[in-house]
Each structure stands twice: as C-alpha cells, then as structure tokens.
Amino acid sequence: MTAPLTLYGVKISMFTGKVRSYLIKQGIHFTEVAPVSEQFTNVVLPQIGRRIIPVIEMPDGTIVQDTTDIIDYLEGQSLSAESAYPTDPLRHLLALILELFGDEGLLRPAMHYRWNFPQDTSGFITHGFGGWQGPDATDEAKAQIKKTMKTFSGFLPALGVTPETIPEVERSFDALMDILEAHFIRTPYLFGAAPTIGDYGMMCSLYAHLARDPVPSGLMKNLAPSLFRWTERMNVPHADYSDMPYYAPSHDLPETLSPLFKYIADYFLPEMQMNVDVMNALPGGTSGDPATMNPKMAVLGFGSFQHGEATIQCAVRPIRLYMLQRVTDYFAGMKKDDQKAVLYYLEPLGLTPLLTLTAKHRVARKNHIEVWE
Ligand SMILES: N[C@@H](CCC(=O)N[C@@H](CS)C(=O)NCC(=O)O)C(=O)O
C-alpha cells in the first residue's frame, strides 16, 4: 500500500465532504487531520496563504487546495479506481453542471439552516467548530470558537439570506428535496450505479450542512429519506445500495434527472446570469493578478436576481465564475453532434443559456487563489 495522503478538513465543513467522499469512493489511502496541527499551521497554511479547507498534502509534500483542483490533481496521478468524469460527453457535461450547482448553488439553504436555529443546533455546531479542543478547553479557546462561528454566521446577508428571503430559501429547498427524493429512491447515484464529479459536488452542501446539522437533517430524513441514504452511501467505499433490490443498473440517463436540471434553470441560472453581468461591468485585471484585493474576502461585487418569489441580493465571488468556465469550456470543446445531444436534452428544461454564459474576463487559479487569466 502506498503512503497515505493527508486530508486537512473537518466533519462540519461542506467542501471537505466533497473531497472525503471522492477519496473514500476511489479507494485512495488517506488520513484526515484537523487543520490545527503544527504541520498545518507551520507548513501548509503559509503556502495556501489563507485559512481555507480542505487541503491535501501528498506524501512527497505537494499541497493542493480547492476541491476541484484536488480531484483533478488526483485524477492526473491515476490514483482513482474509476474516473469521476463520465466518458460519455453528454453525461460529462451534465456532471460538470451538477458540480457547479452543488458547489455554489446551495449555499443559502446550507447556511440558513446552520445558523438561524441556534436554540436547536448550537451544541452540535459548537462541537463541530471546536470539539477538537477537548474536554479541558480553556476559556480563551472557547472564546476563539465563538469568534470563528460569528465570522461564518456573519456571511448570511452577503449570501442573500435575510428575513425577507428566508421563506423562499426554505420553500425552494423543500422543492429540491422532493426532486432528489424522487431520483434517489429509484437510482443510487446521480447517473446510475456509480458516483461522478456531479455527485461529489452535490455532497458539498447536502452532506456536512443539510444532512448532518440537526434541523435540516431532521427534515431530510423525514421528507427525503432516499436523499439522506445517498449521503451515507457517498461515505462508504462499496456501492451500498443493497437496500434497493429493485434497482437494475442501466446505461440510460435516469428520467428523474431532468427535473433537477429544470430546477437549476429556474433557480440557479438567474443567479449565474447576474454573476456574469456584475463581472462584465468590472474593468478586469492584469493576467496573473489576484481577482480580488483580498483573497480572504473574495468578493467582486454585489448584484440581485429573482429566486422564485424573492428578489435576492448577494455577493459575486470569482470562484463561481471559475466553476462556470468549466461548463462553458467543455461545451465549447465538444464535437458538433455531442453539442446537439446536449442542446436536445437541456432545451426543454430551459438550461441551454448556461452553456454559453461567458463573461468578458476570465478567472484562473494560481498559488491556491483566484487570479485574472
Ligand atoms: N472553492 C473552495 C471552497 C472552500 C471553502 O469555502 N471552504 C470553507 C470550509 S467548507 C472554508 O474554509 N472557508 C473559509 C474561508 O473561505 O475563509 C473549494 O472547493 O475548496
């Protein structure tokens, strides 16, 4: 067995859940370490330049941050049992859309349910943010945990979670749970019998926040038990669908996926269009320069868009445009016939505008931060 890589992350972190699940499913040998070790503080953090997780450290010392970069790096090392990227171009493109949506499209319900129910959740969340301090945590350490939690809960308004938008945030999440329940009761993973990059992306918000935090976990277990089972299934090495003896693996695209893409067209496309509009109004920057003045608060600007019945105003972050480029670049590089198959599938669902939604300026990643391309 090869030496294990180190995954710096925690259970309560949404993006750690994406990489952990990839490592487990791909049978990659790893050890998970809380990002408080001496090695993390003295060696890893100075290279990353900002306090962000997850990070992987390879046995040879290579450090990679950003879940997408981590997965692509590991795919490049031929460590995965089965590539996260489907070989069929249509599925590959659809999986990239689901990764984008999973990474960036569900932050509002994830953060709302984490922070707006302190009476029901504060014990669990405090343990997640500082349990590693142990039973003898000093008052100073406890105060630091509270401070970190305050910083994260302080992101709610910038994400567009306000008293006016909360009813729609909750309603639209209920609608999503209905769609995913109808899918996962029939099919164990998004595209069939095995996970793809789409499943890994969707694990971000759906696992660490929405399946684990007390309030949404209760809702998900009760209203969408098959969706909850998928989050468990994504955390074990085997296929884990013996509780679906009626499922017969098939090469066909599951029919229950199309309502999910329609949902993305209705709820997420307007937000991405707003992101591109805000980006287009900016002057851009010199190639290789950081896309935001302060990578720790990586916000390009603010904009508003219609989300169901609510008008939402929220921050535009460069990482979101970087993830969108993965979709639009892949579509642009497809053969004409494959593009036609994508358009044929997405046209009736209203999602074709996403395929060519490109901004005037491009975002790249260099030295673990987003820069102008
Ligand atoms: N796009 C990044 C997002 C990572 C991220 O936002 N991680 C959170 C924890 S789940 C974090 O460390 N946030 C701290 C910060 O952004 O300052 C990725 O895919 O790795």
Task: Tell me about this structure.
The structure is a single chain. α1 packs across α10 (197-209) and α4 packs parallel to α10. The model has no long low-confidence stretch (mean pLDDT 96). A 4-stranded mixed sheet has the order 2-1-3-4, with helices on both faces. Strands 5-6 form a two-stranded antiparallel ribbon. A two-stranded antiparallel sheet has the order 7-8. It is an alpha+beta fold and 373 residues long. It folds into 2 domains: 5-76, 3-Layer(aba) Sandwich (Glutaredoxin), CATH 3.40.30.10; 89-110 and 163-372, no CATH class. It is globular, with a radius of gyration of 20 Å. It has helices spanning 14-25, 38-48, 67-76, 89-104, 107-115, 118-130, 139-153, 156-159, 166-184, 197-209, 214-223, 225-233, 258-267, 269-280, 318-332, 336-346, and strands at 5-8, 30-33, 55-57, 63-65, 301-307, 310-316, 363-366, 369-372. A hairpin with a 2-residue loop joins β7 and β8. It has 16 helices and 8 strands. Glutathione (GSH) is lined by residues 13-15, 51-53, 66-68, 296, 319.
Strand content: 5-15%
Which class of secondary structure composition applies to the elements?
Answer: alpha+beta
How many domains comprise the coordinates?
A: 2
Average the pLDDT over all residues and give the rounded result.
96
How many strands in all? 8
Along the chain, the helix and strand elements come as EHEHEEHHHHHHHHHHHHEEHHEE
Largest sheet: 4 strands, mixed
